[in-house]
Amino acid sequence: MISVKKLTKLYRSQVKTGNIYKDFFHPVYKNQKALDDISFEIEQGELIGFIGPNGAGKTTTMKILSGILYPSHGEIQVLKFTPWEKKSAFLKQIGFVMGQKNQLLWDLPATDSFRLNKEIYEIPENVYKKNVDELITLLECKDFIHQQVKTLSLGQRMRVELIASLLHNPKILFLDEPTIGLDIFAQQIIVNFIKQYQEEKKATIILTSHYMQDVQRLAKRILFINKGTIIYDGTLEKLLSTYSTDKTIELTLSTPISKEVQKQFSIQTEDYTFPKLRLCVKKEQLSDVLSRLLPNVEFNDLSIEEESLEDVIKKMYQEK
Length: 320
Hints:
Order of helices and strands: EHEEHEHEHHHEHEHEEHEHEEHEH
Distance between the termini: 29 Å
Structural class: alpha/beta
Oligomer: single chain
């Protein structure tokens, strides 16, 4: 579905010297690499978590894949098309949702924008009605679908944005921070919808998000990009098995622990504030630590937690 080989994107910007005359009449420019010779392939029906820090190159990559930007170098094929040629047959097979951009007509209800998209994408009337009804139900939009877009909350607007992008049943869907700024209820609705939609339609989806819980719930494969270079391309399972080395023991104590126990287990002040005790241990040492610790403390509750995906990614990032 998507083939990227040696993709590079340069941005040209002026170097300001502080000399107004020189900056105006003899400007000096420099090239900055947003993407640096990256390559990857995505198969039909995959849902990819495309992650990385701010400014890493995620949105730039997605804009090139969707034809919004031109690359400086490289070979890109999406659905056997060259994206920046913007052929009608290509554009009718992709959808793009950006959490921080609005594509709907601000002063009109979302349904008017849906009708406009129907004509742009030349969707047959019966297909349009079926898709609209189905998407409104799945995204729970019935109560506000006829309100002006400018009166909608962020969570409501993101749901109707998704509908507008999916009316034509795109084969590839680019989702750039679709849950950014949403409350937990709106976020849950959208994440559940993406999961269900991808399973039913077998669409290929590239998802960027700074909410690792979203990525963990939806994606089986991760592309991690930093400073324009991909530093990890593989399954989420392999990422966790390679870099998740610790577990956290959390105890709710019924009585304070003695100084001797604190010394024996090297318990630091930041780990222990009665009644809470948190210990980070290596996975292979978990059984041994528990067998020695539990007989020496009185507790009401015990939990053992895996490392969060955020912590695992930090480890990988630091190692790379």
